[in-house]
Amino acid sequence: MAKTGLISEIDSTKVSELKKELRFLVKAILEEEQDNEFISNSSKSCCIDAIDKAKQVLSYLKEVKIKKTTSSLTVADDDHHDCSLSCPPEFRCPLSKQLMKDPVVISTGKTYDRPFIQKWLKAGDMICPLTQQVLSHSLLTPNYLVREMISQWCKTRGIKYPDPVTSINEDGPTETDRDRFVSLLDEMSKSMPEQKSAAKELRLLTKRTPSFRGLFGESSDSIPRLLKPLTQRRGFSRSRNNETVDPNLQEDLITTLLNISIHDNNKKLVAETPMVIPLLIDALTSGTPASRSNSAAALFTLSALDSNKTLIGKSGALKSLICLLDEGHPLAVKDAASAIFNLCIVHENKARAVHEGVVSVILKKIENGVNVDELLAILAMLSTHQRAVQELTELGAVPTFLGIIREGSCARIRENCIAILYTICIHDRSKLRDMREEERAHGTLSQLAQDGTSRAKRKANGILEKLNRSLNITHTA
Questions:
Q1: What is the distance, to the nearest Å, from the Cα of residue 281 to the centroid of all Cα atoms in its chain?
Q2: 444 pLDDT band (50/70/90 cuts)?
Q3: Which of 256, 277, 341, 407 has the most C-beta neighbours closer than 10 Å?
Q4: How far apart, in Å, are the Cα atoms of 166 and each of 162, 236, 309?
Q5: What is the pLDDT of residue 127?
Q6: C-alpha span between 361 and 333 (Å, rounded)
Q7: Helix, strand, coil percent values for the chain (each to nearest 5)
């Protein structure tokens, strides 16, 4: 039998026997070597045989160890593959078909895993792989909402969510870049045609050249100089000269702000520059559709920093984002939802969002089938706030959530629905009556307790236990 065949038949008992034999051989070799000058030729020969046999046993054990290690690696790879296969379709990159590590949004609103869409774009394909639409730009915006959803999905299954692939650092700006940068900012203090031309070029440069975005972080006055055309006219349009902001100029400058904000080192500087957030709020309420969408996207990008979440929340931006969510273009709705989700991670912003009417707006969108997955994730987060739960109860949301669980197929959507319903039951026991009627008619909760996610099963069983206790109390009474 070949050596590999022999090794394949070695089980744990055989390995144990080999280790015992190895210990005996090593002991014999050491004892014989201790009195080396009195060893006979025959004893020396026995010692050499023992060494050879020990080497053979070690060789066998080494190969067994290698085989086990290779096998475990294969299993780990299979587990990762199974994880990608079993995850919700929305969590897989349309290009790689694998679980996304670093989800990003392109200009058509579709989400891809960063390294795969980057490869697609670098190959010169300036169309969306899913929609086949021509891309208006190649900017990739991190989709923190989807990333958080994937992270939660992995956490409930005990799967470690991999860190995003770190992007390769771009070359730094050249002296020519710096000279052009200063020149373009100077144009912002000149006539309207020069401002519009410079703004358009800055928009393109900050989109295509990451190193150009970094230049804005090198000087505290670069962003005020960039926004000078808007700050001049912002005051005038509401007072003496009735001079309004050119919509195309506003769109180019707001989009440039978005591009600048993507650079991690700029986020704090941009948000803390006094005129930035007020101008973004202006664009949210009175800009072109693209300005409104890009303004929401900029607030979303800036809110990656916790300190910025608080700053943006205090500015009153949530009210404008909620209005945009209520009435905006489909792409703007996605950007607004993402920004609201990010901001409401901070507890005080939950209260602000609820006060500004976010619950009724979201519930209306969900009932109309708009962005159900993303908006339910926001409601699930807000359900830790008592006033939000009260509003959901008053607005009659319970039948809506029960219907989604009963008729839906997306595990994550059903999980968020049952999590919200569980919280409603804690705050308002009268809603258990609706749950009981649903259970009698359709067995919705029992079904979810069998085939839902681990979290959904816990919440469904929790409600069922409450139903049983209330029924027992009624019978006893």
A1: 25
A2: very high
A3: 256
A4: 11, 45, 24
A5: 82
A6: 11
A7: 75, 5, 25
